[in-house]
């Protein structure tokens, strides 16, 4: 199994390194939109008229029929410490746990064609009789950070995320500019759900969420110094009432701040991992779907270019607007 362990790296927020072999597996899994399987094949989704979903999939040689119920959307007004975020009740026995006998053979699907918002990483989705949506998304959640190709089996896994919601999913607004006298490029933004910032109320020493409100945002870079194609750069949490985040493209030491690295990794910093494109995937709050942002990478700052000067000024103003006085992500 794989765990995502954050590390406090950036000077402008909580930045996370992905680490294997750490004791956060259960917590990381429970906080996803919700993670129900790894490397699942032959995936099928059905929902009956009582609002119970059944996910049928193959796990190696076994075929499993998992039932889910008891959660929709996310608590947002207001999220409170000590009041648990919503999550599914799950039965991996095909009904024996809940009903005393298997019900999957007679399970009647009442779900109709999906007509909801566009989702990335989508495997399948449908519309339940009550008008709510169910979806399954699958992506390589546990990839190691700093652009390292996965060297452990668990780092290569595709995690299957189940979601159930009404209305719009969470919103991920991402911007790019330059920071620290315009010497470094960065991404920053805001993660919100129904106008409320997505945030947790505590993290570990390395920045991992310690409650079911905290969410991880995974940043990937394309065709960077790490190599061709997509590579995982870092993961980090959104912070405070605004749900703000910020990440600077600096050089980072794989032997510091809890970064996982393959055996024999040289003792030298990696990056900065500027890419021609960036991708960020945010784990949906509660049991809402995961959302993704894509954009071309920003070039280096040119003080003689009026467009660069104007962009930096406008992005500094945007950052201050998002912060709204919150103490993180202060630097321009």
Mind summarizing the main beta sheet?
Answer: 5 strands, antiparallel
Query: How many structural domains in the coordinates?
Result: 1
Rg, nearest Å: 20 Å
General shape? globular
Number of strands: 18
Tally of helical segments: 3
Task: State the distance separating the first and last CA atoms.
Answer: 39 Å
Percentage of residues assigned to helices: under 10%
Order of helix and strand elements from N to C terminus: EHEEEEEHEEEEEEEEEEEEH
**Average pLDDT score:** 89
Beta-strand fraction estimate: 25-35%
The class by helix and strand makeup works out as: mainly beta
List low-pLDDT spans. 1-31
**Strand order across the largest sheet:** 1-15-14-17-18
Textual characterization of the structure:
There is one protein chain. The radius of gyration is 20 Å and the shape is globular. It has one domain (about 1-40, about 130-330). With about 325 residues, the protein is mostly beta strands. Strand 12 and strand 13 (about 195) form a beta hairpin. The protein contains three helices and 18 strands. Helices cover about 10% and strands about 35% of the residues.
Task: Detail the topology: elements first, then pairings.
Blueprint: E1 15-16, H1 25-31, E2 35-38, E3 41-47, E4 53-59, E5 62-69, E6 89-91, H2 96-99, E7 112-113, E8 122-127, E9 133-139, E10 159-165, E11 171-179, E12 184-193, E13 196-197, E14 216-224, E15 227-237, E16 244-248, E17 277-282, E18 291-296, H3 306-323
Antiparallel strand pairs: 1-15, 2-10, 3-4, 4-5, 5-6, 7-8, 8-9, 9-10, 11-12, 12-13, 12-16, 14-15, 14-17, 17-18
